[in-house]
Design brief:
Chains A, B: This is N-carbamoyl-L-amino-acid hydrolase. Chains A, B: Keywords: Hydrolase, Metal-binding, Zinc. The structure is a homodimer of 410-residue chains. Helix content of chain A is 36%, strand content 21%. Chain A has 410 residues and is α/β, with parallel strands linked by helices. Chain A folds into 2 domains: 285 residues, Aminopeptidase; 108 residues, Alpha-Beta Plaits. The longest helix of chain A has 22 residues.
Chain lengths: 410, 410
């Protein structure tokens, strides 16, 4: 089988162009889901899809799809994609690489006039990040029927604006069908870890996703004057929270490199320098490749919380929601990725994602596979997220070959 | 000298009535400066002043004064007062006791038809707490010329509303003169500590205020995915902040009972569970009765910050603003308080305040004295702030005697 060439310069130019929409001073992006910047990025992406003759549709949760028809109208589409929204601050590649990589594959196919049996689609999922509207993976969850549309529409940001209103405001409330049949889904993404970079490997063949947990911890103190209250009468919810945060960071380091644990967010009531806070709520997160490791992290966090309760005399509650189970991607698609990388002369590594991705929502819906490429120092969700053009192109070339192989085989 | 009796039932009733304005479920108050609740409390206080024949005036920063004229028009007023605004949440007594205690003294004087040489005034200072507008002690600072009116008017809350606009909105933007001459100022207040309660003493004769510091500490991290970033690549500003908070709490406990130190407020950027924060800013506070002790606390905090920098590898900046100097109140007024308490058969203790009070702003302007009465467990700035009626009345009776003694002597 011959393969049309990827235009690597254009792919990189598209990534850099998109990064100017919501650009931050140090080079990253602030492009929260359904913000003005997201709307403008969507408009540009729509134009790029139309430019190569794709048929563009938008569904009721704002997922954007560009489609090139196949020769067999009875076959469902092979889909590639990811998301254009970012964290605040976010980087240039987390999300856009998978969307614009998919676009680059379709551009190569269209330029070559290559006929495919299946329709080939590229998708931009709505609100993958969950930085503005919770939960993340919103668009893919609605598309696959794991979250109902009404609930998703009613979700509000901290300013009280709903997904529905914001979709309408930026003109991405469409009517394309949800839950339609998909042959297979490929998602190209930066690793957001440093295993590939450290091993000097170009292609990560993603076997699935690790166990993954977010849980809330709440410390109950008692208000008091922050200067006049005698030290032995203080019940400072922040001081108790700080003990827990230090302990969880230490637990994360103990489980390195297999697992991780840490606290990234904290809210205080009141949050006033003259008034000892009576309430501190934090969200801790953890990952581990196996169930027993995740259970061990939970146990250690529970023990750390109990120790902090004993030392401070404050009541500390810990939520114990179920973790997100590990997800397995599709072994047959993984084999196609493996072969494509081999043919292109790239080294590969099988690994599991520690982050959430739309591919997790797609996996129960259709055969699904992710392809990782290296990023600098494992940094993402950051203005300092970096990757090389060479890796972006390599990952896209692998995806194109895997997609065409699937089209030929399936 | 004979003294008109304080109506203790009415004083307590006034305190309880006022506490219904901005009432919180557990019994405290949310009456932020220049809020609707503050406006309503002011209206009630104005009515109570008019009810006993006081002449009410409001100055351009919203300080409310009720005045009963003296027999010698050449003499400046003896003033009593405190503030009606609260923390969020705040208690029923921090502030209102001094205002309504002053009102109770004037009610007693008026009911007895007692002539005084000096005019006697009761004052409600604007925004003592600084919970909504910074700095606190705003009204008394403007009144005494330590803060200019334009700066104070331009101060905005977090929602962007200015002191000027809010004074006008609640109709307390007046035109009474600022910086006028005052003979002397008395402020009755709950101790906000537990020295009186522990010693079983009724009257605290306040010699002045301790050294007092607020300083900002800023931790610089690097954003990153809170689950996917490898533990050895994380630079979590919150984890560094937590180490500093734990250390400062420990320093505070080491200096107990003389000094105190702690952290009550913290802000994160971003504050999102999926994104490691790149910035954490906290405000730490400390008190100590002597300069050397305060210097020692500063040194220990600096060492703790340096140790946290070394352990975490993160950059941590610490502001070193000058502390608020210790303030001495007026020894001759202190002697009057001492004698009044003795005549009434109350035990007394000389102590220094660890909190800020309008009396600190008044001290450079005129002879100033504070009177403390016990509060439960040293708790204030809290819904659980408590004191007894007996102590409220005792403090008020002492203040009345001291004021009338000053009027006779000065």
């Amino acid at each position: 089988m011959s393969f049309p060439p990827i235009d690597g310069d254009r792919l990189w130019s598209d990534l850099m162009t998109l990064a100017r929409i919501g650009e931050l001073p140090a080079g990253g992006c602030d492009r929260l889901a359904l913000s003005d910047a997201d709307g403008m990025a969507r408009n540009v992406f729509r134009y790029w899809m139309e430019e190569i003759g794709l048929k563009v549709s938008v569904d009721p949760i704002g997922n954007m799809v560009g489609r090139r028809e196949g020769t067999d109208p009875s076959l469902p589409p092979i889909m590639m994609g990811s998301h254009l929204d970012t964290q605040q601050p976010g980087g240039k590649y987390d999300g856009p690489l998978g969307v614009l990589g998919g676009l680059a594959c379709l551009r190569a196919i269209a330029a070559a006039g290559r006929a495919t049996r299946h329709p080939i689609e590229v998708v931009n999922w709505t609100n993958e990040e969950g930085a503005r509207f919770q939960p993340g993976l919103l668009g893919s969850a609605v598309f696959t029927g794991q979250l109902d549309l009404e609930t998703a529409h009613a979700t509000k940001d901290v300013g009280g604006r709903s997904v529905f209103d914001e979709l309408r405001r930026i003109r991405y409330l469409g009517d394309a069908p949800l839950q339609r049949k998909v042959d297979s889904y490929f998602e190209l993404h930066i690793e957001q870890g440093d295993r590939l970079e450290k091993a000097g490997i170009t292609i990560g063949n993603v076997a699935g996703c690790e166990y993954n947990l977010f849980a809330e911890i709440t410390c109950h103190g008692r208000n008091g004057h922050s200067q006049a209250t005698p030290m032995d009468q203080r019940a400072n919810a922040l001081a108790a929270a700080a003990e827990v945060i230090v302990a969880i960071e230490e637990i994360g380091r103990r489980h390195f490199p297999a697992g991780s644990a840490g606290v990234a967010s904290l809210r205080l009531w009141p949050n006033n320098r003259i008034n000892i806070p009576h309430l501190a709520r934090m969200s801790y997160s953890a990952t581990h490749p196996d169930r027993a490791g995740m259970a061990q992290i939970r146990r250690e966090v529970t023990e750390a919380v109990e120790a902090a309760e004993t030392r401070t005399g404050l009541r500390i509650e810990i939520e114990q929601p179920p973790e997100r189970e590990a997800v397995d991607f599709d072994a047959s698609l993984g084999a196609l990725v493996e072969r494509a990388a081999e043919e292109l002369g790239h080294s590969t590594m099988s690994l599991r994602s520690r982050a959430g991705h739309d591919a997790i929502r797609m996996a129960p819906h259709c055969p699904t596979q992710m392809i990782f490429v290296p990023c600098k120092d494992g940094i993402s969700h950051s203005e300092f997220e970096e990757m090389t053009k060479q890796h972006a192109v390599a990952g896209t070339e692998v995806m194109l070959r895997a997609v065409l192989a699937r089209d030929g085989a399936a």
